[in-house]
Amino acid sequence: MDDFLLYIKMGLTHVLDFFAYDHILFLIVLAVVFTYKQWKKVLWLVTLFTIGHSITLALSAYEIIKFKVNIIEFLIPLTIFITGVINIINLKGKINEKENINLIFAFFFGLIHGLGFSNYFKLMIGEEESKFLPLIEFALGIELAQVIIVLTILIVGSIIQKLIKNSRKYWIAICSSIVILISIQMMIERVFW
Q1: For position 95, what pLDDT does the model report?
Q2: Contact 172, 64 (CB under 8 A)
Q3: What is the DSSP letter of 64?
Q4: Which of 48, 142, 23 is nearest to 104 (CA)?
Q5: d(Cα 20, Cα 15) in Å, to the nearest integer?
Q6: Torsion region of 126: left, alpha or beta (phi above 0 gives left; psi -120 to 50 gives alpha)
Q7: Mean pLDDT, rounded, of the chain
Q8: Is residue 165 classed exposed, middle or buried when 0-12, 13-18 and 19+ CB atoms within 10 A define those classes?
Q9: Distance CA 62, CA 131 (A)
Q10: Terminal C-alpha separation, the chain
Q11: How many structural domains does the chain have?
Q12: Which of 150, 140, 148 has the alpha carbon at shortest distance from 38?
């Protein structure tokens, strides 16, 4: 039971670590296009990201794939940047018709984000014979943390949009723009060539 809680806690702290805020930034740009009434879609968003994240984490933990860390570290803010830019581009049309792209981004970009944490995860589990249970437990912790973050984003967005009428597009534009600027700075810091 202690190991179960340990890996769930590690998954929670991995996402909720404000010093490793790239995960939070990505969740912000993924979730900002949704409203509180779309909680089912947001739950899919979180789950698809966790699935993508867990697949590459597992492939790396079992040493099926290997990669250069500096490339992955650059690709993570690039995924954040792309998602934010797509959010802004999609503001020109009807928002509700365009938010499904974020579901696709959640899965595919989750694959990249999982690679970014895989080296630490391999160190964390060490030479354990069974890596499967720690992976599942860690994924549960990630899922819980992501639910906390996206619910916070939805609640804050809902409050702001009620205070300032017709502000959904502004909310999306402002959040996405701030995240884009931060992700540009992150990419500059992580240039690998």
Answers
A1: 59
A2: no
A3: S
A4: 48
A5: 8
A6: left
A7: 88
A8: exposed
A9: 8
A10: 45
A11: 1
A12: 150
DSSP string, 145-181: HHHHHHHHHHHHHHHHHHHSTT-HHHHHHHHHHHHHH
Which secondary-structure segment (H or E) carries 83? helix 69-89
Q: Distance between CA 184 and CA 49 in Å, rounded?
A: 22
Residue 189 is encoded by which pair of tokens? 């810091």
Containing structural domain, residue 138? 2-14+22-189
The model carries a pTM of 0.89
Residues 6+ away with beta carbon under 8 Å from 148: 16
Could you give the CA distance from residue 155 to residue 157 in angstroms, rounded to a whole number?
5
1-22 residue pLDDT tens? 677 788 899 889 888 888 879 9
| Structure tokens, 174 | 């402002």
Query: How far, in Å, CA of 100 to CA of 45, rounded?
Result: 9
Q: What is the pLDDT of residue 141?
A: 93
